[in-house]
């Protein structure tokens, strides 16, 4: 990647047209938000389907494991190909890959919305996840390439906020669309909504997103990509299908194979780096203080977050018998506080450092405990207002913890490895989301026949343990530097 400063890159850009700015390699002020919009859709789409699951079940006669695969299949394809997407952008041009992937995502969304069977829907979701994996890495890589200093820090912080907000807004929008039942199409508009928005982003991005690429692109690492994808698949398929099938012998065999594949992946990646290559998951990059500590926490946070969004949607609709509209509205307090917290998080973290992340974890833990108490005591006479306060606490705490973890993980990553580091971060995030649905989602489905409120409480007890560990683990993160107000990504070891 180039080392040109942003001031020289943007000289005279304000007087030029958006297309001229893009040709010059700069980023038009609107370009940050266009790129964020491109990242918003794939992240939202992981969660927008949660509220639609009961309608999909009724329409396509889907089994419980099939519903999990509708979510997890997208997540596996997304996680397995993210780093590859970043490498392709570095080599062939991030603007070209961004536009091509966005077009593919729009077409896959159209296919999801017209799927005649649950098998076709799962297949289209896998394609949708694959195109999302090519799309999203271009956003962070472009920020690292064309922005510097405070502008880059602000853009990365906005990306972190966008990721969390998209997750919460996804379920809200999903509930609104399914509840509207446009022309009797029930759940299908949750996928079709991507089409007009995606086309608009595509047209604007073609004009103002700069055409950047690495001057020294790293290799594709096909062996690492295949092994990592195989490891994820071998792990998540039995975890999602095992419960409904009674855990036949092949599910345990696949789990054992996943462990072996994970070990082989580590050996192959280590040897590739020793040969001077840049593997899919570079061991040396993973040993950086911010990466080694922060990625574990991002993964754990994502496991709990993905599971929560999945089981909460099913609890409200299947347990409390709310329609999809009210199921989506139920998450609104969490969405509002997450949004407000995301706006305040950069300033609060700059002032209080790691203590802000610990406080966020404690607030989230209090919200989860209050939510479980409300559902356990008042079940089944639980209204939306009864859950509003606890959900607001959950959203406020998550926003601080989420923003801080994203900021910490990328702090030590060199600029020339920005695309690789961003890809590794999102890979672990998406892997955690998919694993959360596959593991804690399966736990919920196995407990639900004995009582929905008890099933929800069982899953949330596990998540509360995760959040408590995160609260303690924040002290192990690199200390945020006093210079963070000027360069919020800087940390001390």
Just give the CATH class: Mainly Alpha
CATH topology: Growth Hormone, Chain: A
Can you write the helix and strand succession as a string? Answer: HHHHHHHHHHHHHHHHHHHHEE
Oligomeric status: single chain
CATH architectural type: Up-down Bundle
Count the E strands.
2
Rg of Cα set: 22 Å
Q: What's the CATH H-level homologous superfamily?
A: MFS general substrate transporter like domains
How confident is the prediction overall: mean pLDDT? 82
Strand order of the largest sheet: 1-2
Q: What are its keywords?
A:
mainly alpha, 493 residues, two-stranded antiparallel ribbon, Growth Hormone, Chain: A, globular, disordered N terminus, 20 helices, single chain, disordered C terminus, 1% strand
Give the topology.
Layout: H1 6-9, H2 18-23, H3 29-60, H4 64-92, H5 94-113, H6 118-135, H7 137-146, H8 149-180, H9 189-192, H10 194-208, H11 222-245, H12 249-274, H13 283-286, H14 289-319, H15 324-330, H16 332-352, H17 354-378, H18 384-409, H19 418-447, H20 452-473, E1 479-480, E2 491-492
Antiparallel strand pairs: 1-2
Structural commentary:
This protein has 493 residues and is mainly α. It has a single domain (23-492), classed as Up-down Bundle (Growth Hormone, Chain: A). The chain is built from 20 helices and 2 strands. The protein has helices spanning 6-9, 18-23, 29-60, 64-92, 94-113, 118-135, 137-146, 149-180, 189-192, 194-208, 222-245, 249-274, 283-286, 289-319, 324-330, 332-352, 354-378, 384-409, 418-447, 452-473; strands at 479-480, 491-492. Strands 1-2 form a two-stranded antiparallel ribbon. Helix 5 (94-113) packs antiparallel against helix 7 (137-146) and helix 8 runs antiparallel to helix 18. The chain is globular and about 60 Å long. The protein starts with 5 loop residues before the first helix and ends with a strand. Residues 1-16, 20-25 and 482-493 have low confidence and may be disordered.
């Amino acid at each position: 990647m180039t080392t040109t400063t942003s001031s020289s890159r943007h000289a005279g850009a304000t007087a030029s047209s958006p297309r001229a700015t893009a040709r010059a390699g700069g980023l038009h002020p609107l370009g940050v938000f266009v790129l964020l919009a491109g990242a918003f859709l794939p992240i939202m789409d992981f969660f927008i389907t949660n509220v639609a699951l009961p309608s999909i079940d009724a329409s396509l006669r889907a089994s419980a494991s099939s519903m999990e695969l509708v979510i997890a299949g997208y997540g596996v394809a997304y996680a397995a190909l993210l780093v590859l997407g970043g490498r392709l952008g570095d080599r062939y041009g991030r603007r070209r890959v961004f536009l091509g992937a966005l077009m593919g995502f729009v077409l896959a969304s159209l296919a999801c919305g017209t799927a005649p069977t649950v098998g076709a829907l799962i297949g289209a979701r896998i394609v949708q996840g694959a195109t999302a994996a090519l799309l999203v890495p271009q956003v962070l890589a472009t920020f690292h390439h064309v922005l510097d200093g405070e502008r880059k820090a602000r853009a990365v912080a906005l990306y972190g906020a966008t990721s969390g907000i998209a997750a919460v807004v996804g379920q809200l929008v999903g509930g609104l669309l399914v509840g509207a039942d446009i022309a009797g199409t029930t759940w299908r508009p949750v996928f079709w909504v991507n089409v007009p928005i995606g086309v608009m982003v595509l047209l604007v991005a073609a004009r103002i997103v700069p055409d950047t690429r690495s001057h020294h692109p790293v290799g594709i690492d096909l062996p690492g990509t295949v092994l990592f994808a195989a490891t994820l698949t071998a792990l998540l398929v039995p975890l999602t299908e095992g419960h409904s099938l009674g855990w036949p012998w092949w599910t345990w065999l696949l789990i054992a194979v996943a462990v072996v594949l994970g070990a082989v992946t580590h050996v192959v990646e280590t040897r590739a780096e020793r040969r001077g290559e840049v593997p899919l998951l570079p061991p040396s990059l993973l040993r950086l203080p911010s990466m080694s500590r922060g990625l574990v926490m991002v993964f754990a946070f994502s496991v709990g977050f993905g599971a929560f969004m999945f089981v909460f949607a099913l609890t409200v609709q299947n347990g409390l018998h709310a329609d999809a509209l009210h199921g989506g509205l139920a998450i609104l307090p969490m969405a509002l506080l997450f949004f407000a917290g995301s706006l305040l998080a950069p300033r609060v973290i700059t002032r209080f450092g790691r203590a802000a992340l610990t406080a966020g974890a404690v607030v989230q833990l209090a919200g989860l405990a209050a939510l479980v108490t409300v559902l356990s005591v008042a079940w089944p006479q639980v209204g939306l207002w009864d859950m509003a306060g606890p959900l607001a606490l959950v959203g406020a705490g998550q926003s601080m913890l989420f923003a801080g973890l994203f900021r910490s993980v990328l702090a030590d990553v060199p600029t020339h490895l920005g695309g690789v580091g961003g890809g590794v971060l999102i890979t672990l995030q998406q892997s955690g989301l998919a694993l959360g649905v596959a593991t804690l989602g399966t736990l919920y489905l196995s407990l639900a026949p004995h009582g929905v409120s008890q099933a929800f409480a069982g899953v949330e007890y596990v998540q509360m343990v995760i959040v408590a560990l995160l609260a303690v683990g924040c002290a192990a993160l690199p200390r945020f530097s006093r210079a963070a107000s000027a360069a919020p990504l800087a940390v001390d070891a």
